[in-house]
Amino acid sequence: MAADARVSVDEGSEQQPSHRALDNNYDSATYKPAAFRLDDINIDLISVIITTATAAAAVISILLLHQPPAKLIAPATAAAASVLALRLFLPRPNPPRGLVLITGGSSGIGAEMAYIFAEKGHDLILVGRNEEQLEAVKNNVKEKFARSAYTVAADLSRPGAAKELYDHVTNHGFTVDVLVNGAGLGGVGDVLEQSIEFAERMTTLNCISLVQLTQLFGKDMVKQGRGWMLQISSVGGWMASPGQNIYHATKHYVRAFSEALSLELRTYPGIVNTQLMPGPTHTQFVTRAHAEETFMMAASGAVEDPKAVAMAGYQALCKGKRMVFGSWNSAATALMMQLAPRSVHLTFAAMMNSPLRGRMRMKEPEKDQKARGSDLKER
Ligand SMILES: NC(=O)c1ccc[n+]([C@@H]2O[C@H](COP(=O)([O-])OP(=O)(O)OC[C@H]3O[C@@H](n4cnc5c(N)ncnc54)[C@H](OP(=O)(O)O)[C@@H]3O)[C@@H](O)[C@H]2O)c1
Question: What CATH number has the domain spanning 100-378?
Answer without folding.
Answer: 3.40.50.720
